[in-house]
Structure formats: structure tokens, C-alpha cells
Amino acid sequence: MDYQNIINPLYICGFFLTKLASLCLELLSCVLMKETLRYLAGIAGPSGYGSNSTAEQVTELPSWPSCSLFSPQLTAIVTGATSGIGAETARVLAKRGVRIVIPARNLRKAEEVKEKILRESPRAEILVLEIDLSSFTSISRFCSEFLSLGLPLNILINNAGVFSQKMEFSEEKMEMTFATNYLGHYLLTELLLEKMIETAAETGVQGRIINVSSVIHSWVNKETFCFNKMLSPKIYNGTRAYAQSKLANILHAKEMARQLKARNARVTINAVHPGIVKTGIVRAHKGFITGMIPYISLHPNY
């Protein structure tokens, strides 16, 4: 043993810093584990809601009765509303009196969701318009069609998403997962943003943009965020591509929030992790982890 190093102040300082860092990591692990267990158990957090809370419970607020079913005051566009989280979001917002616009590639499925919502909420107002979020041309056409209706726009929920283990490209030759999950929603938001700002200014009601991301974004860091790795069939990884698209959703929200604040616009944007939900994306990719989800997940009604 080097006794000279033992009494060296720098050695002692380094030793205690290492111990402190180790203790901090252990404490952080305990906190994360505790929060994970609270989530899985459905224990309510500071907001008063937990993973077992339903969309209907969350929207049972004093402000919602003012949105009468007989006179819709808010308009929401919900992408990916033909199934899963998007369909449930559209259903409950419609029940609360919000006019719903469903952009969809599969118009048949969109009409089925519309009919199902109307059976529950006969006075709901629901519009179905065609869109392909992987196509810039289709997105531009959808926005032109929506804006031509002269409707206000209070809420934009960028929820649609795809996941594929096979490398595919959009008509603009973009990797399909990134094109659909991020680029499509980016363009959609850009083309509708002025309408949202205008609506908020005219009505005094704050506009809301929601980017549905995923905790899987944390699987990507600046060293591994690499487009080249998405463009080679030999090393393509669908999970990495999906994670990168979800990280991009968060970065988009952060930058857009900065720009909106600089403009003093009455519109906010947030990125959210929806939790563990057995949606179509999960059902289509079976494995050990996804196989466990039926025991711990929330099940959308669609």
C-alpha cells in the first residue's frame, strides 16, 4: 500500500467524492424504484391522479361544464385517433363538448371511431379528414382543407406514431419512422400554428399543443443520435429509430416553447410520456417485455 497517497489531501478528497457519488447514485436508484412502484400500483401523484386514472376522471374539472355539448367552444385535432390512446382522447374530449377533427389515412377506421363516439355522445361534432403523416404533400393538403373550413383551433394533439423493425422510406425518401413520428407532426404544427395563435388571441383561451413522446427517448444520447445508422439496412434498428423519433418530439417541444414565449403567444406546447399502454404498436411487436404488458398496462377502449 502506498502510505504517502493515503495522507495526500487530494487522494482523501477524491476518495470521499467517489463515495459521495456512489451514495447519490444509490439514492437516485431508490427514488426511481419507488416512483416506478407507485406508478405500477396506480398511486396518485401531486396532481391527484395516478396510472389508474381514466381520461374521464382527469377531465372532470369545473371548467369543463362550460364547454356545453350543445355549443362546442373548443376545437381539437387529434392525430392517430383511429385506435388506442388517440381514439380514447377523442372520445372523452367529444364527451366534454369539444369539436373533434380526426385526420386519418384509413378513412374507414376513422368513420367507425366517429360512429362509436356519436353513439355515446349524439350531440358531438366530429369531422374526418384524410391525411398521411409520412407525406408532406398530404399534410399540406389536410391543413389547407382544415383552414378553409374557417374553424378555430384550440388544441393540437400530435399522437400518431409508427414502429417498424424493417427499414422503409416515405415518398420524400425519409426513413419512415422519423418521417411519420417527427417530421410529419413538425410540419403539421408549423402549418397550423398561426391559426392556433389567432384563435387564442380572439377567444382569450390558451391554446395547447401536445407531443406524445415516450420514455424510450432516454435510450438515445448525443453520441448515438445518428441518422446514418438509420439508413443502412445491415445495421438498421427499429427500436433505435423509434427512440430517436421520440427524442425529436421532445426537442421540438422545447424549441417551440421557447419561440412561443418569445412571441408572447397564448399557446403552450408540452411533450408527454403516456405511460404503459397496450396500444397497436405494442400488440404488433411481441416479446418478453411486451408480453408482460397485459399485467401492468392500461387498456384503451379502442
UniProtKB/TrEMBL annotation:
Q: Which residues cross the membrane?
A: 6-28
Fetch the Pfam families from UniProt.
Answer: adh_short
Keywords associated with the record = Membrane, Transmembrane, Transmembrane helix
InterPro entries with a match to the protein in the record: NAD(P)-bd_dom_sf, SDR_fam, TIC32
Q: Which PANTHER family match?
A: SHORT-CHAIN DEHYDROGENASE TIC 32, CHLOROPLASTIC-LIKE (PTHR48476:SF1)
Family named by the database record: Belongs to the short-chain dehydrogenases/reductases (SDR) family.
Q: Could you tell me what this protein is called?
A: Short-chain dehydrogenase TIC 32, chloroplastic isoform X3
- The gene is LOC116187714
